[in-house]
Amino acid sequence: MSIHSNLAQIINQDPVFGQISFDDHEQVVFCNDKDTGLKAIISIHNTVLGPALGGTRMWNYDNEWSALNDALRLSRGMTFKSAITGLNLGGGKAVIIGDAKTQKTPELMRRFGEFVHSLSGKYITAEDVGMTTADMDTVREVTPYVTGISEEKGGAGNPSPITAYGVFMGMKAAAKFKYGSDELEDKVIYVEGIGNVGETLVEYLTQEGAKVFIADINRERLEQVSSKYGAHVYNGSDLYSEPMDIYAPCALGATINNTTINKLQASIIAGAANNQLADENVHGMLLQQRGIVYAPDFLINAGGIINVFAELEGYDRNEIMRKTENIYTTTIEILNRAQENNLTTHVAALQIAKARIDARRQENR
Ligand code: NAD
Questions:
Q1: Which secondary structure element, helix H or strand E, spans residue 56, and what is its range?
Q2: Which of 34, 39, 81, 93 does the annotation list as catalytic?
Q3: What is the DSSP letter of 240?
């Protein structure tokens, strides 16, 4: 193929506006710094409700298209997460291309912070995969447009335990809807991924008397968490086929997909992972047809964003917990709305989030 036809093919891909994950995003910023090796993409999906807040993910992407699509998809998710949670925030996300273990330096983080600063507060960052509270403290040295900083530096600290509490609330609401009671005692619950969020969720669930099974690729963690809370380690090879009441995906996204959906034995899905449905429409519909209650991920994993929002608004811990507890009520509302209108729970949640954005757009006119 000639250089010209190659170029024509690339140009025909419509680099940004034609991407599969593009959904009327407002702004996409490509950040490059030769000295520190920084290559980052900041994606601002929507700022109707407020500044676009969302974490920065550092990941060794296979290629730049994957990085761009991740930024586009994740920033869109943040718009709806904040909208459904009632926060005056828009949706944004940043990705840094690279290996967080070997390529992340304070200089790179400061340079990234300068790019965030150049947007004058339209985008506010926080931590995501590959980032720590300490990294956000470094970003804070060059810009105030960062949350998720340490408590010593005036931040709200690690958001994961709050996220876990919100997931627990969402799960209890789904149980109330499905079983008529939100008691989780004796329910068989599989928690897949027992990292920062998963571990605290296991703590809540075991305290409640649920029969908790845990799965993780990290063997050491499995043993730690199992001995700490008395959870059962899952040693099988196909978790999705196991008889269970509740499946809690707390590792990666897209675990509800063409391969797993027909095997799933659970009557409820409620977990922390972002983008649990490989295809929102197809898999949302299949879950509905199978009578499996799916508590939408972006609704019940919003504890973390509530926690970082608190830094901007100056809420105390009680207010953070009260707002996170409210996920219970919102989940019940969404599940009822989906049932009454014959919608998937994902679509029901999305409709509410979009309605809030549209109403604000009208007010702002
Ligand atoms: P984490 O990195 O601390 O934990 C993830 C865990 O999943 C790790 O223990 C890892 O070993 C395990 N894991 C990875 N691949 C796996 C696999 N194939 N099977 C089983 N286990 C696997 O992450 P976290 O902060 O606990 O977040 C968990 C999920 O929740 C992520 O999808 C994240 O995007 C989402 N989330 C987190 C927050 C938060 O506040 N931390 C907020 C919203 C959403």
A1: strand 56-59
A2: 93
A3: G
**274, 300 Cβ separation under 8 angstroms:** no
- Each residue's pLDDT tens digit, 199-240: 999 999 999 999 999 999 999 999 999 999 999 999 999 999
Pocket test for ligand 1, best of 78, 82, 163 (most atoms within 8 A of CB): 163
Please identify, by atom number, the ligand 1 atom nearest to the C-alpha of residue 297.
44
Q: Tell me which fold the domain 14-76+89-153 belongs to.
A: Rossmann fold (3.40.50)
Q: Residue 272 Cα, ligand 1 centroid: separation in angstroms?
A: 8
Phi first, then psi: what are they for 249, rounded to 5°?
A: -75, 115
Buried b vs exposed e over 209-223: b needs ≥16 C-beta within 10 Å?
Answer: ebbbbbbbeeeebbe
Question: E strand or H helix at 131, and its extent?
Answer: none
Given a contact cutoff of 8 angstroms between Cβ atoms, the answer to whether 231 and 128 are in contact is no
Q: Is residue 323 among the annotated active site residues?
A: no
Cβ 88 vs Cβ 360: under 8 Å: no
The residues spanned by each domain of the chain are 14-76+89-153, 160-355
Task: Specify the residue for token string 């807040």.
Answer: 53
5 pLDDT band, cuts 50/70/90, is low
* Continuous H helices in 44-159: 64-85, 106-118, 133-140
Q: Kindly write down the DSSP assignment for every residue of 145-157, as one continuous string.
A: -B----GGGTS--
Q: Under CATH, to which class is 160-355 assigned?
A: alpha beta
Torsion sign (Cα): 5, 6, 9, 10: negative
